[in-house]
Amino acid sequence: MNRDLSGASPKRGNDPEPVKAGRRKITRRQFLARGTATLFGAGLLTGGYVWQGEPGWLEVTELELPLAQLPSAFSGTRLVHFSDVHLGFNKDAGDVKRLVKHIKEAKPDLICFTGDIVDSEAEDLTDSVSLLAELTAPLGKYAIFGNHDYKNTELLTRLLQAAGFVVLRNQSYVISQGGARIGIAGLEDMLKGTPDPEAALKDIPEDMFTVLMMHEPDYADTAEGYPFNLQLSGHSHGGQIRLPFIGAPYTPYGSLKYISGLYYTAAKAMPVYVNRGFGETYMPFRMLCRPELTVLTLRRA
């Protein structure tokens, strides 16, 4: 469930074009001129929307996800997944305040952030620390780094920890509830770090249900060779600009296969959810690709 918040070529020479009864053919030059005018007009009409409209129009995606290996004690868990805030580019603390409000309204049991909290400078997170600290979830708050987060990882780690997040860098964390346990594993970024799933899993029993947080979704084809049961990713922004009947003309390396929404890997049918992200990068625009907050209700299949 999704909710809304907030011609023909001319003859050679100077011979006139033939005229058919009731309609005159236009020349190639006229066709191009009219097409250009139409595109320009459309740009004027949509420019404010793709810049000032859609980037601020958050979509909350609610999805029930059946998982065969999920312990019964965790069935019904509300996992809130957000990604790619990109503070310092087109988002600031005011935007984070709005995001935090929507996360609170989702009443999460578990919060997972899958990277790119800043666009470049770690200091751009400072003003949002107290806002993110307001988020509570009985099963915890977990974060990983994305490729934009590596300029000052020490400071960024301290700021995320001050906001109450457990930062996972090729590490895992075990959650207990109702006599059962599940694992939360987080890997280093595929482009700027060195993912090490074996290191992340070293303290996780092989038969334990484990959620993997990995920034680049295409890593799922590697991750399914390990005992992960669900992968959460971001990075793609859903393409950020999507065209009717075409989809996203461009997505970054690391999200060429898995772009937006729920997928299952080919060999193991491991579910992979790709969040479209909250912020923007490179261009402050979104078109037919609203920012997203995901609420996954985990169910034992």
Which characteristics define this entry?
6-stranded mixed sheet, alpha/beta, 301 residues, 23% strand, globular
Which strand order do you get reading across the main beta sheet? 1-4-15-5-6-7-8
Low-confidence stretches: 3-23, 30-41
**What portion of residues is helical?**
10-25%
Helix-strand topology string: EEEHEEHEHEHEEEHEHEEEE
Strand content: 15-25%
Q: Could you give a short account of the major beta sheet? A: 7 strands, mixed
Rg on CA atoms, Å: 23 Å
Beta-strand segment tally: 15
Anisotropy-based shape: globular
- Termini, distance in Å? 20 Å
Determine the structural class based on helices, strands and strand pairing: alpha/beta
Q: How many helical stretches? A: 6
Provide the residue-averaged pLDDT: 88
Notes on the structure:
This protein has 301 residues and is α/β, with parallel strands linked by helices. It contains six helices and 15 strands. The strands form three sheets. Strands 1-4-15-5-6-7-8 form a seven-stranded mixed beta sheet, covered by helices on one side. The longest helix has 26 residues, at 28-53. It is globular, with a radius of gyration of 23 Å. The model is unreliable at 3-23 and 30-41 (pLDDT under 50).
